[in-house]
């Protein structure tokens, strides 16, 4: 049984890590026959790196469904990992890809969705709520006997990436502060991006008589980190890993917006998503963990906050100040 995988938005953080894992981990590598990476910017460093690792990099030009259908047919893929791109038209592009995958006769689809989309309200958290519409669209094919795409869907609702906390490296280094607009007492469970890509790689390479492995097929996998943390608990965790005291500062949404604008080159849609997720935290709607799927699929334990901060300690540690004479 062949397995030809296509990953969309492969030059983004999530797509790149999943693709890199499939191309470099021997266990996963031997289970796929080819890997195509759809990218909007083929000249980007990540696209070039994926090419050097053995991926077929294909430009993705959204806007005309017929062309996207042809692109997918040419890749010969039977499996698509659908990642909504970091783009102002993220929703429209993901919808177009879903329709195109259906028309191109792709059999297996893994959608990377978002934790919290089911708690989000359309007026308050529109970027998060969009994921519910995408999930519905992908899963709607299940009842369509004429669509191969309906046979083998899987959805991963990815938690809030712990890597987003690295956007505050400047404050951590210079002021010993972790500034987040999450309120004093509400909790959330950030997840390491590596954990999301590991589960995705298992799903994309798993095989069963209907496409994906029956253990994964049709699953709604909700993946958060293994520990619920307030802002103060995250700061304590980072302090332990860095060997110095960090304090949590509960900042306003307005200030959070300013910080994101000043310190990141994220797409506007991503900034909106991050701020909306923080607003869910403040509403007390993220006070849960969901690690069962991770344990079940990988047989491992997800990354604890202490371990996450240890992994990034080099980036977060203050630059040593020279003693003045």
UniProtKB/TrEMBL annotation:
<dbReference type="GO" id="GO:0005634">
    <property type="term" value="C:nucleus"/>
</dbReference>
<feature type="domain" description="NmrA-like">
    <location>
        <begin position="2"/>
        <end position="291"/>
    </location>
</feature>
<dbReference type="InterPro" id="IPR008030">
    <property type="entry name" value="NmrA-like"/>
</dbReference>
<dbReference type="InterPro" id="IPR051164">
    <property type="entry name" value="NmrA-like_oxidored"/>
</dbReference>
<dbReference type="Pfam" id="PF05368">
    <property type="entry name" value="NmrA"/>
</dbReference>
<keyword id="KW-0521">NADP</keyword>
<comment type="similarity">
    <text>Belongs to the NmrA-type oxidoreductase family.</text>
</comment>
<dbReference type="InterPro" id="IPR036291">
    <property type="entry name" value="NAD(P)-bd_dom_sf"/>
</dbReference>
<protein>
    <submittedName>
        <fullName>NAD(P)-binding protein</fullName>
    </submittedName>
</protein>
């Amino acid at each position: 049984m062949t397995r030809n995988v296509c990953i969309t938005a492969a030059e983004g953080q999530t797509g790149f890590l999943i693709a890199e894992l499939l191309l470099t981990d021997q266990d996963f590598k031997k289970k796929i026959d080819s890997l195509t990476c759809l990218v909007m910017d083929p000249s980007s460093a990540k696209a070039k790196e994926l090419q050097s690792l053995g991926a077929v990099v294909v430009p993705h030009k959204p806007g005309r469904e017929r062309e996207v259908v042809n692109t997918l047919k040419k890749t010969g893929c039977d499996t698509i990992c659908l990642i909504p791109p970091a783009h102002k038209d993220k929703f429209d592009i993901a919808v177009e890809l879903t329709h195109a995958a259906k028309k191109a006769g792709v059999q297996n689809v893994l959608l990377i969705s978002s934790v919290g989309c089911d708690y989000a309200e359309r007026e308050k958290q529109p970027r998060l709520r969009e994921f519910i519409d995408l999930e519905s669209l992908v899963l709607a094919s299940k009842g369509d006997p004429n669509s191969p795409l309906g046979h083998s869907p899987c959805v991963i609702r990815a938690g809030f990436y712990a890597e987003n906390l690295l956007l505050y490296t400047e404050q951590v280094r210079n002021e010993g502060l972790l500034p987040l607009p999450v309120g004093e007492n509400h909790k959330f469970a950030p997840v390491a991006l590596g954990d999301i890509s590991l589960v995705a790689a298992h799903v994309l390479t798993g095989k069963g008589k209907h496409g994906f492995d029956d253990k994964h097929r049709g699953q709604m996998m909700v993946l958060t980190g293994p520990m619920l943390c307030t802002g103060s608990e995250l700061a304590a965790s980072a302090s332990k890993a860095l060997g110095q005291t960090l304090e949590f500062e509960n900042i306003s949404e307005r200030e959070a917006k300013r910080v994101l604008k000043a310190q990141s080159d994220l797409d506007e849609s991503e900034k909106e998503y991050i701020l909306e997720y923080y607003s869910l935290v403040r509403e007390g709607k993220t006070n849960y963990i969901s690690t069962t799927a991770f344990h079940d699929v990988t047989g491992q334990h997800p990354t604890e906050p202490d371990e996450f901060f240890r992994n990034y300690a080099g980036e977060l540690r203050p630059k040593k100040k020279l003693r003045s004479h």
